């Protein structure tokens, strides 16, 4: 669920800063399956769907993990660093 929460926060950032034509990339198929699921009733999942509904310029993209995708590799590095800290920046 951490990946879905990260996507939720990324979309918040995109909307708050009025960014356009943005790709949000993740290597978590489960995160995308959860967001696409019609049976998941959690509020923050529906918030993601609602926020994306009218924003066709925001793309969610899956990338294969550990295949040299620069942004994904950097994200993995930051996640590892955060996992050893007591406090996490959100």
UniProtKB/TrEMBL annotation:
A Gene Ontology molecular function term of the record: nucleic acid binding
Its lineage opens with:
Eukaryota, Metazoa, Ecdysozoa, Arthropoda, Chelicerata
Q: What InterPro entries does its record include?
A: RNaseH-like_sf, RNaseH_domain, RNaseH_sf
**SUPFAM superfamilies for this protein:** Ribonuclease H-like
Q: Which Gene3D superfamilies has this protein been placed in?
A: Ribonuclease H-like superfamily/Ribonuclease H (3.30.420.10)
Q: What is this protein called?
A: RNase H type-1 domain-containing protein
Q: Name one Pfam family in it.
A: RNase_H
Residues forming the RNase H type-1 domain are 1-84
Origin species: Araneus ventricosus
Look up the domain of life of the source. Answer: Eukaryota
């Amino acid at each position: 669920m951490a990946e879905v929460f990260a996507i939720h926060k990324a979309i918040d950032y995109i909307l708050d800063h009025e960014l356009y034509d943005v790709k949000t990339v993740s290597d978590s198929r489960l995160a995308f399956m959860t967001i696409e699921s019609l049976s998941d009733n959690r509020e923050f999942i529906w918030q993601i769907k609602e926020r994306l509904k009218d924003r066709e310029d925001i793309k969610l993209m899956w990338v294969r993990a550990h295949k040299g995708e620069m942004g994904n590799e950097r994200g993995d590095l930051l996640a590892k660093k955060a996992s050893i800290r007591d406090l996490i920046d959100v």
